[in-house]
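Why do we care about 3D structure at all? Because function follows from shape, and shape follows, mostly, from sequence. That is the central idea of this module. The next example makes it concrete: a single protein chain, its amino acid sequence, and then its structure expressed as tokens.
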Amino acid sequence: MKVVFILFLFYSAAYSQDSLSVYKQKADSYLGEQLYSEAANYYTKALSFGNPDDRKAILEKRGLAYYLDKNYQLAIKDFSYVIDSYKKEKSISNIFFLRAACRASSGDNPGACEDLKSAKDLGHDHTQVEELEGFLCQ
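And the structure:
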């Protein structure tokens, strides 16, 4: 009985990783083809198979797909989750920058300015940040 259970666990893990890979590849392909809604749908499917290590990258890409599809509120939600979950990592400076772009696009200039400051503090490209700050944060 133990052997059957171990084989089941092994099969389940392998199936899960295969499914995750398939969904991420499909989503990446749709993103490259500028089919943003479809990409977001496949990133959502990938989330159900991913482990916590995969979650950050999938949410970043799904947020980007939502942003490019002009679905700013869902993009902000994904970017906010990543920021809240990984706030100690310098690598999230780009996520602050993307969330700032979403906030600006949805009319929240004060929120965008806060995110731009955070992006700059975490080392995001100062030229990009300052250009957007000059436009939004007078």
